[in-house]
Amino acid sequence: MKKKRIPLRMCTGCHEMKPKKELIRIVRDKEGMISIDITGKKSGRGAYICRNVECLRSARKGNKLERAFDAPVDDAVYAALEEQLGEQTEKNDG
Question: What does the alpha-carbon distance between residue 74 and residue 78 come to, in Å, rounded to a whole number?
Answer without folding.
Answer: 7
